[in-house]
Amino acid sequence: xxxxxxxxxxxxxxxxxxxxxxxxxxxxxxxxxxxxxxxxxxxxxxxxxxxxxxxxxxxxxxxxxxxxxxxxxxxxxxxxxxxxxxxxxxxxxxxxxxxxxxxxxxxxxxxxxxxxxxxxxxxxxxxxxxxxxxxxxxxxxxxxxxxxxxxxxxxxxxxxxxxxxxxxxxxxxxxxxxxxxxxxxxxxxxxxxxxxxxxxxx
Length: 202
What we know:
By secondary structure, this protein is α+β, with helices and mostly antiparallel strands.
């Protein structure tokens, strides 16, 4: 199966490198944009984007949203989060861009500056927070505190409410901690090690 994707289009999760320069700069494959009223998600078997579900409310993602290739949220990521298990998906990444990027299924260079420790139904589901490399507004950021607090609060609110349905609440998601660049680097390293253990190294 891997040879098939290398001959044609690389699988966004398994066929693309994490690097160019981990943890300072990573590849991010974008599944969702701030303009999407539908939640797109990579189909793990084919590598194509599929419709996961319509967004349940009018709350839209405030950043570009996708994952870091060749990462996996397994036992090492879970240990950092203090949960029994990871969610079994690639590591999610949220990328701030001052210029609107209104299409998904793209690859970009992102600079991690922090993250949200999110726990979804008891599983570690970290969200790395990053900025678009060379972004005119945010490209110089190296730490979470280099970004306005209002942007981080908006991102946190989105993930706490994005599974709500009108007239209903949800207690399945919590964000017990927001962390900076040093901890983001640890989560990245753990997710790469989890991937190598689960799927084999590059």
